[in-house]
Amino acid sequence: MAATHPSLPHKLTSVKALAESPGLSSIPSLYTFPKHTNDEVFSDTEESIPTLDFSLLTSPDTDERSKAVQELGKACQDWGFFMVTNHGVRESLMKAIIEASREFFELTEEEKRGFEGKHVLDPIRYGTSFNASVDKILCWRDYLKIFQHPQFHSPNKPPVFSKKVRQVAKEILRGVSESLGLEDNYIDKTLNLEHGLQVLAANLYPPCPQPELAMGFPAHSDHGLLTLLIQNQIGGLQVQHHGKWVSIDPIPNSFLANIGDHIEILSNGKYKSVLHRAVVNNRDVRISIAMPHGPALDAVVSPAPKLVEGERNPPAYRAMKYKDYLELQQSSMLNGKSCLESVRKYM
């Protein structure tokens, strides 16, 4: 029997609706990603992603905390990704936010379209792919993005979860600041985290009949300072480490953390944001909740003066307002770290 797929309607449908089309056995060409030579290169290393015990980072014991800060700095430098355990956010809250996201994606297409945004800085924005208006190839992904701070927005949920997560992020960023040899409150004060942007991005990756051809989210780095991610125990996230893709298995009741482009800028390249991607499967629905934490929208981000040393280590990045960077990245096609490259200084 010949493979079939429905033709796409003039108004772009959600991936969920497409995946649930009767008789779907192949994907529209609009969702087919070209294969590159390094796509299939997986790491066979037994080295595992670092783990940060959050309770040690917040320990009153100065020796314990000092060791945790040191290990955090090593994780940022070696991987750019790390698991966060013993973080104090109740597992019931984490499960509830995943379930609330699932319920949203179960709404009718018409109901969900009521949340479609017109601009990348709209506080509540539902959509498909990454930026469907400019994407040449569409991602096998639907999303809901909600601004949580400095103003809290939500269709119907209280802010308890986002407040708890923001506290965890701020403590980790204190540790990052210290690990760079800066004052522990340098990032907080310089980038005005009191009014920092926090986004909750719920991602839905439905089963795909041809997962080897599609991509949930192509290789990219994150804007902002720190992203914390949870998921529904269905794997799919891959991180580039030493030029090879490493699959990250979810650990129950933990956050997966990664540093963003603006830590790379602030550290003058000592800590680098890392390419990562989401692959899809043909069996299970994967839901992930990514929570990027950034500076205040009007904060200008540049390398910390203490980390710049004249000719020996000149500033490697131009100063740029966070809002301008965010608009540039979110309104463009997703292309690795191209947005960060646009603010890099070439000597």
TrEMBL record:
Keywords: Iron, Metal-binding, Oxidoreductase. The keyword Iron applies. Residues 195-295 form the Fe2OG dioxygenase domain. The keyword Cell division does not apply. Belongs to the iron/ascorbate-dependent oxidoreductase family. This is Fe2OG dioxygenase domain-containing protein.
